[in-house]
Amino acid sequence: MRRFFVPPELSRGDAFELPEREARHAAQVLRLTAGDELTALNGAGDILRCVVESATKRAVRVAVVERQYRPPLPCSITLIQAVPKGPAFETIVQKATELGVTRIIPLLSERVVAHISEKDFAAKVEKWTQIAVESIKQCGSPWLPVIDPPRRFDQLTQQPPAVDLAFVCSLQETHRTLREAAADYQATAKHLPRTAAIWIGPEGDFTPAEYEAIAQLGAVPITLGPLVLRADTAAIAVLAIANHELQPRS
After folding, report:
1. Domain 76-246: CATH superfamily, name plus number
2. How many angstroms from the chain centroid is the CA of residue 122?
3. Percentage of residues of the chain with pLDDT beyond 70
């Protein structure tokens, strides 16, 4: 099924126009015409089965045939990711979106090599958000993650996200796994966490002082195994594990 993104404020009625970018793709690339069906995702839980009413090169109007709401995952996961150099962060945004994260916080820690000027923050967030949009269209998720502007380490530790359980992927000596930490939480709280945060460091890892600051916030150090993973690999691995261990199964 052909999928398109339509923000919530544009998709509330029984009929609406696709945003210009989506309309161009529908009309000029896919060559949709009146009577063709498509799926619209609004990033806020709605999956809309639609039929094209009219189509020009820049405007496509659709009517809603069926509207379904898919609730969010039971555990809302925030990824706090130190920004790696090159295009790796774009891969992380793409894969984290496919794996259902709720929020992504780009982190500028001491050993981050990538240089992002504050004046470029808005453009970066716009680019990363568009990558996330393309990801939900590819995987069919109706939920679009929130992507924060990059945050300095000291800023984030002063105002960290409020969550039930936080983890930090550690290269320091630890044999504790996410499964074990989640099981300990469940044994005490009698339920799995409903919100979680996962910290992942840069290429050179967090500094000892940063590890200490994260630990002071209550984050549990966890291992991803004996091998040193690239930042983008670590993000994919830990989010897949988190989905298995933190999302209750019916």
Report:
1. SPOUT methyltransferase, trefoil knot domain (3.40.1280.10)
2. 17
3. 99
